[in-house]
Write a structure and sequence with these properties.
Elements (H helix, E strand, L loop, with lengths): L4 E4 L17 H4 L10 E6 L2 E9 L9 E7 L4 H9 L6 E7 L6 H16 L2 E12 L13 E4 L3 H12 L5 H25 L8 E4 L5 E10 L2 E9 L8 H15 L5 E6 L3 H9 L4 E10 L4
Parallel strand pairs: 4-5
Antiparallel strand pairs: 1-2, 2-3, 3-4, 5-12, 6-11, 6-12, 7-8, 8-9, 9-10
Length: 298
């Protein structure tokens, strides 16, 4: 077999990226995202693209946040693995899949091929997640009216709330951060994300009972692709009362009142209570995503 050549693309040859089929519709799913030409890499054999990957980040990021577009030609899993393995960007891989992809033979075959290639590149599955997309046609969820929502200018208050929220959590990314650096690391990663979003800091809100007891936080946000549910979290002592729905309903209203034509959201598939709250609030599942992380190196 002819040797595989792996290289980065630039402005002059960025068109090569578009020479592979897109069986999972990733290009359509990422239509609002911008991929820099120099963060795209391809694997070529006899001048033909047999694998491709595009890394993504915010407009001001100096390095990518993740790789969210990865395709391989039929029978080219090893070329795809080598493309990921040799990349200078060893970051999370977010495999974007249609909702219910395992029930569709073609989507399942394409998804599983990419999963095998990622694992061969030394990556491991962290979590599978549901991706939601609310639009005005879905209707606004009812506000239960049980909580009082207010902004809070002090980051330390949010940091403390996040530590409490992540002391008992089902979120795989938070659990990974806790395992690596404790509750402080998990809380700081969330704050870093909130600050990374281009939406106003004044949007961050605390939720309290009418008598002032902290229940949780919600973060209406805009990421580089548009409006999103940045974070929903309830402190452990107030769980079991359905307050996550109250937070999500308020977040939805908050963004809709500011002209959002859609609102993206996501949760781990294993977080059954939060998935049920998205459904109750009228946010339909539009995609599934499998998150891979580079395996720890000894």
């Amino acid at each position: 077999m002819t040797e595989t050549v792996i290289r980065a693309l630039g402005e002059s040859d960025a068109h090569l990226f578009d020479t592979l089929p897109d069986p999972l519709g990733v290009g359509r799913a990422l239509s609002r995202a911008t991929h820099r030409p120099d963060w795209k890499r391809v694997a070529l054999r006899d001048g033909k693209v047999v694998a491709r990957a595009a890394w993504w980040g915010g407009p001001d990021d100096e390095s990518p946040v993740n790789v969210n577009w990865f395709d391989i030609a039929e029978g080219e899993e090893e070329a795809g693995a080598e493309l990921l393995r040799t990349s200078p960007f060893q970051v999370e891989y977010e495999l974007i899949l249609p909702a219910g992809w395992r029930d569709d033979a073609a989507a399942r075959a394409a998804g599983e091929a990419r999963m095998r290639a990622a694992k061969a590149a030394g990556m491991e599955v962290l979590v599978e997640r549901y991706q939601y997309r609310w639009t005005p046609d879905c209707g606004l969820p009812e506000r239960p009216g049980r909580l009082v929502f207010r902004p809070e200018p002090d980051d330390a208050v949010f940091f403390d709330a996040l530590r409490r929220i992540h002391s008992v959590t089902l979120d795989a990314h938070a659990l990974r951060a806790v395992a690596e650096g404790g509750l402080d690391k998990a809380a700081q990663e969330e704050l870093d994300f909130f600050n990374w979003c281009p939406s106003p800091r004044e949007w961050w809100q605390l939720a309290r009972t009418p008598d002032g007891d902290l229940v949780g936080i919600h973060i209406p946000a805009r990421n580089p692709s548009g409006p999103c549910v940045g974070f929903i979290g309830v402190v452990p002592e107030h769980r079991g009362r359905g307050y996550a729905y109250d937070l999500l309903a308020e977040c939805t209203h908050f963004l809709a009142e500011r002209g959002a034509e859609f609102i993206a959201g996501s949760t781990d598939q294993g977080n059954v209570p939060m998935a049920a709250n998205f459904t109750k609030a009228g946010h339909p599942v539009v995609q599934e995503r499998v998150h891979f992380v580079p395996a720890p190196r000894n």
